[in-house]
Amino acid sequence: MSLMELQDKSEHVYISTGLRRQTSAEIVSEARRSLRTLATRRPFTPQEKHRQLFGESSSRAHDGRPPSAFSLYAQHFEAPDSRPGSGTRLSPLEHKPSLSVSLDEDGGVEDATLPKPPAERGNTRIGSGGSRARLLRAASINRLPPMTPNTKSKKKNKPVEQIGFCLFQKTILIGDAVSDEIVGELCNACSGLHNALAERGMLGRQCKKRSAILRTLFRLIDVGSDRLNLTIAKLILALNVSGNNLLNICKLVFKISRNASNDTLFLNGCILDSLLSLLHCEDVWSKGEAVLYCVGSLKLISGNTALSRLLLSKGFISVLLQLSKRLMHGPSTSVTAVLRNIADQSESRPSFLSNKSFSTLCLILENHRSDIDICINVARIFSKLSTYTECCHALAETPRCCSLFLDLLGKYSRKQDLVVRLLFTLGNLTAKCTEARERVYEEEGGIDVLLDLFQVYQETPSPPEQFHASEREDVLVKLIRLLANLAIHPTVGTALAANTLCVQLLLEVLECRCVQDSEELLVNAVATINNLSFYQGMSSVVRAQHTHISQLLLKLLLSSSMDVVLEATRVFGNLSQIKDVRHFIMQHKGYVVTLLDSKTPDVCFSACGVLINLSADPDNRAMLRAEGTVQKLIDCLRDFGPQDWHLAAVVCQTLWNCSLDGELQHAEELLEILWLYTDRGALQWPSDGGVRQVQEACWELLFLPVAEKLRQSFHIEDTTVIIP
C-alpha cells in the first residue's frame, strides 16, 4: 500500500473528532497489509426512453395489466353521490352569468350562487373514443365574468370572490385553443375556491354543494390544459372523491406526469402533498387501481432530480415504506421502482437508514421472490446504496440478506441484470464487513452457487445466446471481485485457495482473455489469485500449480496495462517465497528489475517485494547487481522517499540484501541520501495534521530502523544478517 492510500485512510479516520485516532502501530499494520479488497463500477442502468406505468423491460404480460396510455374527458367521470354517468353530453349555458358566490349560514354554498349543470341534450352521445372536437356549445371567451358578492348572503362583507368559480360564458368548440390567459384565470379561480373552502373547513365531504362543484370541475377537464387539469385534480382530491372518480383523477395525474415537460407543474404546484396524503391514508388498501396510478405518477416524476429532492423533503421514503407494509401483496413493483429512483440521490441515505428500510426491502424481496421485476428493482436499490459504507453495514446487519441474495442468484442465474447487481452488492458488503464474508461462506451451498455462476458465464456461449459478451464479462468482473473480497477472511481464503474448481476457473480467465479486450476482468482475476496465494498451506491449489501460474504471470508482465503488471508483480511477491518460483524469475530477471524504472510507486513497491525474496538466495545477489539493480533502487529512494516512507523502507531492505556478500555499488551516493532522510529536522512534513501523523509513523516505525542499519553497515566489514 502506498502513502497515497494511507493518506486516503487518514482523511477518513480524522474527519470526525468523535472517532478514535489510530496509533502509529495500527497505521503501520494497515500499511503492511498484503490482502486487498477490490472496487468496481456500479452496473449501468439506462434511463427508460418512454414514461409509462410499467418499464420497457418489465416481464409482466401486456394482457390484463393497467394501460399507460388512455383518453380521459369529462364524460368518464360519474356524477357525485348519484348513479353512474350515462356518458351523455351536457347542453351549454345560454346566458352570460355574472357569477355571485356566497356561503350560507351552515358554511355551505347557496344554490343560487353556483353554476347549474345544464340539462341533458337529447340524442347527442360521445363514446370513449369520441373526438375532442365535438361541441359543448360554449362560445369563445375573451375574459371570465366578474365575480360579485351576493347581496342576499346572510353574512356581510365576506371575501366571497375568493371562492368564486367561473365557467365558460359562451359555447366553444372543445377542440379550439384556449388562451394561456384564460387558463391562468381558471387556475386562479380553482385555487381561490380551494383556499376558501379550506379556510371554512369545507373540504372533504363537508361542503353541501360538493356535487355541483365536482360536476363543474369535471367539465373543465375537457379544456385540455395540463396546467388546469393538475390544479383541478388537486381540488378534486381535496374533496375526497372515491370509486371511479378517484381512479380517473389519479389516471389524469398519471397522464400529465408522462410528459417530462410537465415536471415544472409538479414542482411549482402542491399536488405532491395531495398524492402523498392519498398514499398515507389508513384505508389505502381500499383504493384499488387508483393507488397504482398514483404511485406510477410519483415514479415518473421522481426521475427528475429536483422533484426527487422535493419528495425527499416531504418524508417520501417513510410514506413508501409504510405503504409497502400495508400492501405487502399489492403494487410493490411501482413502489420499489420509485424507491429505486430516489436511491439515486445521495441525500436519500439518511432517510433509508433512519426508516430501517433495509429490513423492509428484504422482506419485500422474500415475499416477492417469484416476481422478477420486483427483485430487479430491489437489487438496483441495494446496488446504489451499498456504495456507501454506513449503508453497507446496515444491510450486512439485516438478518438473512446474504442468504436471500444467494438464493436469488441460484434461482435466476440466467437473469443477467439481476445477477450482476446482486453480485455487485455482495462485493460491496464483503469489501467492508467481516461478518458478510463469514455469512456468505457459511451459507450452505453459497460458494457452490458462486462457482456455478462462474461456469455459466465463463463457458463459450452456444446459440441462441441469451446475452451479449459485454454482459457476460460484467457478471464475471463482479463475481471475481466478490471472490477476492471473500478471500480476505483467513478461513474463507484458505478454503478458496484449496478449491480446485475455483483456482481452475481463475486460471482459465488468464489463459483465454487478452488485456486489450478484458483489462478489468484480468486485473480482478490476478488480484484474486494474489489474495489466494497468501495462503500457502499444503492444501493450497495455488501453491501446487505455481509453475503454470508463473508462466501465465510472466506474459502479463509484458502487458501495456500498468494495472495488470502491478497485480502480476504482487502475485510474484507471494509466490517468490517458493524456491522453484525464484529460480523461474531469475531466468527472466530483467523483467522484474525493469519495473523499478516505473513512475508508479505501487509498481516499484511490489517489484522490491519480489527482489527482497530473490536476494535472500546468495546465488542471486551478484546477478541482480550485474543487472544494475542497485542504481535503480537508489533512484527509487531519491524519487519517492519523502512522499512514501513505506516504499523507502522496502527499498532499503532490498539494498541491504543485495549488499550482503559484496561491496555495495554507488555507496557514496546512497550514504548521502540516507544521512538526509534520517534527519527528522531536515525533512519537510505536510501541514495537514492527519497526513503528517501517517507519514511520521511510517518514517519512524518502518523507514528509520532499516535506514540506520543500512547506513551503519558501511562501517562494518562483515555483513551477514538478512533483513526479514
From TrEMBL:
InterPro entries xref list: ARM-like (IPR011989), ARM-type_fold (IPR016024), Armadillo (IPR000225), ARMC2 (IPR038905)
Organism lineage string: Eukaryota, Metazoa, Chordata, Craniata, Vertebrata
Chain positions covered by the region annotation Disordered: 41-129
Residue stretches of biased makeup (Basic and acidic residues): 47-65
Official protein name in the record: Armadillo repeat containing 2
Biological-process GO terms, alphabetical: animal organ development; sperm axoneme assembly
Domain of life: Eukaryota
